[in-house]
Amino acid sequence: xxxxxxxxxxxxxxxxxxxxxxxxxxxxxxxxxxxxxxxxxxxxxxxxxxxxxxxxxxxxxxxxxxxxxxxxxxxxxxxxxxxxxxxxxxxxxxxxxxxxxxxxxxxxxxxxxxxxxxxxxxxxxxxxxxxxxxxxxxxxxxxxxxxxxxxxxxxxxxxxxxxxxxxxxxxxxxxxxxxxxxxxxxxxxxxxxxxxxxxxxxxxxxxxxxxxxxxxxxxxxxxxxxxxxxxxxxxxxxxxxxxxxxxxxxxxxxxxxxxxxxxxxxxxxxxxxxxxxxxxxxxxxxxxxxxxxxxxxxxxxxxxxxxxxxxxxxxxxxxxxxxxxxxxxxxxxxxxxxxxxxxxxxxxxxxxxxxxxxxxxxxxxxxxxxxxxxxxxxxxxxxxxxxxxxxxxxxxxxxxxxxxxxxxxxxxxxxxxxxxxxxxxxxxxxxxxxxxxxxxxxxxxxxxxxxxxxxxxxxxxxxxxxx
Amino acid sequence: xxxxxxxxxxxxxxxxxxxxxxxxxxxxxxxxxxxxxxxxxxxxxxxxxxxxxxxxxxxxxxxxxxxxxxxxxxxxxxxxxxxxxxxxxxxxxxxxxxxxxxxxxxxxxxxxxxxxxxxxxxxxxxxxxxxxxxxxxxxxxxxxxxxxxxxxxxxxxxxxxxxxxxxxxxxxxxxxxxxxxxxxxxxxxxxxxxxxxxxxxxxxxxxxxxxxxxxxxxxxxxxxxxxxxxxxxxxxxxxxxxxxxxxxxxxxxxxxxxxxxxxxxxxxxxxxxxxxxxxxxxxxxxxxxxxxxxxxxxxxxxxxxxxxxxxxxxxxxxxxxxxxxxxxxxxxxxxxxxxxxxxxxxxxxxxxxxxxxxxxxxxxxxxxxxxxxxxxxxxxxxxxxxxxxxxxxxxxxxxxxxxxxxxxxxxxxxxxxxxxxxxxxxxxxxxxxxxxxxxxxxxxxxxxxxxxxxxxxxxxxxxxxxxxxxxxxxxxxxxxxxxxxxxxxxxxxxxxxxxxxxxxxxxxxxxxxxxxxxxxxxxxxxxxxxxxxxxxxxxxxxxxxxxxxxxxxxxxxxxxxxxxxxxxxxxxxxxxxxxxxxxxxxxxxxxxxxxxxxxxxxxxxxxxxxxxxxxxxxxxxxxxxxxxxxxxxxxxxxxxxxxxxxxxxxxxxxxxxxxxxxxxxxxxxxxxxx
Lengths: 467, 674
Known about the structure:
The complex is a heterodimer. Chain A is an alpha/beta fold. Chain A has 18 helices and 11 strands. In chain A, the strands form 2 sheets. Chain A has an 8-stranded mixed β-sheet with strand order 7-6-8-1-9-10-5-11, with helices on both faces. In chain A, α11 packs antiparallel against α12 and α12 (290-304) packs parallel to α15 (344-351). Residues 5-35 and 167-173 of chain A have low confidence and may be disordered. By secondary structure, chain B is mainly alpha-helical. Helices cover 49% and strands 5% of the residues of chain B. Chain B contains 29 helices and 12 strands. In chain B, α10 runs antiparallel to α11 and α13 (271-281) packs across α14. The model of chain B is unreliable at 16-50 and 288-296 (pLDDT under 50). Chains A and B meet through α7, β7, α9 and α10 of A and β2, α13, α14, α16 and α22 of B.
């Protein structure tokens, strides 16, 4: 079609007008700043058995030890290699061997994860030391605080997410924040409370404001004495003048008030004309874990309101991975809800594809599981584990030794776990650097060579996340 | 003629009697038919006392735990001079969800001294007549019927406490709804002992937590009731925990009902074998002093590779429902067999421990667990952390007060350990009573951030004045809990327990829900008068609750202070001038401070102006004689709470608004030690 000058000007002016009036333009960056990455911290509580979804070829030497001794947990006979091969080819997507790793399978029930791995956007970081204890509570504290010397029951102190954010500035509009969509704010987020925004139920976010028919601003009509208006005025004006709570036990609640007050109207306005996709809405019915469905929906809204919230870190969780019994029935379903096609993360990033390009998801739990299955068709607490890092900025692949040959004889015994060959600081160093911080500031830990890390180029993880 | 006169006189007598009844009802409890409801309840009680419930509630059997000399002198005991009304209120708020004892009762406890009073306050009896009486009407249960097992059957039968139309979902077999509905109701009920519910909730939703979606109400209620019966009776704590560990609820949750020893091979999982030591007794398997080194640590090797696997073998052949070779179809009871049980002693903590079946072995293991060095270190702090103090972290300072030191916290933690260690037999009630009378409790470093459940149960307990109010659907806690993502018997962290106080503190959504509830739905807690259109259906009997002043009247200042102490319980420490200004306006006028101050001048900024007190900002009441006079005048206004017309209704509405205001302040979220 040939445009004359008048038509060209008309169309250009129209486009410009549309651009200027689009409210979403104010809320979303035109293109993500390369250094303005979002870390999505997905805490898989309970000790997820990643070796259940990332499995060796049954015909390899490692695979034979694995399949024989994990048979109960996988639902196959310990003595039928035919069954192992059949299940391997039926239930797992084969990832071919490379110079860095042997052939392995990823569970087809984690279809989104498979797809992203094939796109080169998933890093499987192996043999990461998680905890020196197999106790959930202590190990969860270790993982979230990022320190192996964390004492049991030590609830105070900062999480590594809190340290990553690190600022003490109370300016909500320009500062960087951790956005928590979990039902309770996790220890990972702890640091300066001013840097945490609880965004649990995004569509019901904020402080109550009576509807406009109740608020009357003129004395020509008597201002409303409706108890909702009375309490709204009483509470808001009280908190507005309650400035003397600094350094008291009550200060956190005053700070919650300030944060919520500053954000309420803007967030409501931002989300008013942004419906959730049908895929995201359907998660509320589809997912057994309704809490996770809510988190995904709120995560979507957190991305919509990213600039308003100052989001740099998003805190999520999925609990229930302590699968001591009937692992296949319990674990497969949970992992599918996170990593499956048409499920949690898939639907989130279908709706927010730009944000995937500039995000890194860290998915991990407090420890791995034992090598050998237990007598209840499942696995018990182990030691080291994989960490999954997924995102547009991730250089995908296997980092470390996916199936260490030293583990082969260990499979014959109960209570043996994956040995650690590196640590959290090593695993996350490139991520932290990419976010503009120093790894040793965030993970200030004393490490023992040969125990906590190996001096070997194979364990060099400096390039997992690109800046 | 004679007949006419006779009939007339009889009719007159009837009318007179009826009117008297109606007026007497109105005078006593603010509604026309409350006595009818009361009589219904009494009739039901008559029926219920003959009802045989399979798991009745039990109370104390006396003995050492009820001997005041146990609380007279021990390490860290407070001095008697520190024992006063405020101290008692702190105990009530910490251990009894506010425990709405009357002022007269509190004074009686002050007078009798701490050693005797603590036994009356802090016990696990099903009913405590001194602690939670209705302001009007009957209590809703007898002592033996006050177990969750019994109450579940009673409530769901319809006509007991709730009308039939609202009684669905509370039953023993209402798998998805019962535990989330029944317990909030029980927490609200007048007459039941809130201390028993506080401890029961702690044990089954935090300490020995199970998830209702997996386990179901019958086994959970049994675990709750058996645990509380044992605690009330004064059984040693190792037996209490052993019994819990052997329960059907725990066996279903962790699935060791499938554990078996068959043909010389152990088949099962080690889940509860680990958590028996770690969650129940605080034995983590490391040294008590520092880090673990997996590869070198003897304690770790012993614990992980011997103690835990051996304990798993001790947990064999527990028959619950569908477990292998089970003859037990009853889902809430466990039977301990021998055929599939390990036929030898187990080695736990390096000690050989025998027993013919799982029950015997676990009880014997528990005897060793309770005296394990790690348990002595960790278990008492665990209990106190659940109930009373979020500031026990010896490694980090959680409090924001810059004057607190790590040493003070360490000293406090060590005192708690000493109190526990000095008990020759570990008895939970003796421990808690001594703790409550110690400088570890009455301590400036003690901070309890109320969890959502603690805050909501406290409010429900304190605003509910009769069981009739429950029948009519007022002040229910269930929806408020759901708004904060809490469902009883479905712990947030599964077997690791419910939301912690620190999580409640840090999660702005919790604050938001609480803040919004008092403004968006002010009648949820702050109901003063219940109307339908212009017709008054119910008036809260505040005149029976709030004491009159010395001049026989209810004056705003005195009422405000009384309400503050009821809900905050801090001896008015944090009731500052700003709080007073707001409360006086709400009580005196039934409107907020802005409206109260603005109405004479019709200030057009009514919705945006805010008044301070002593902060030096604009509209500082302290700097304006006009403002101060208004506030002072409000403080002496009289509230006609005993009037049943418009004046009285305005006063009752004002009390409701004042309650809402107090609940929304930051002080409702925290209990301080001093």
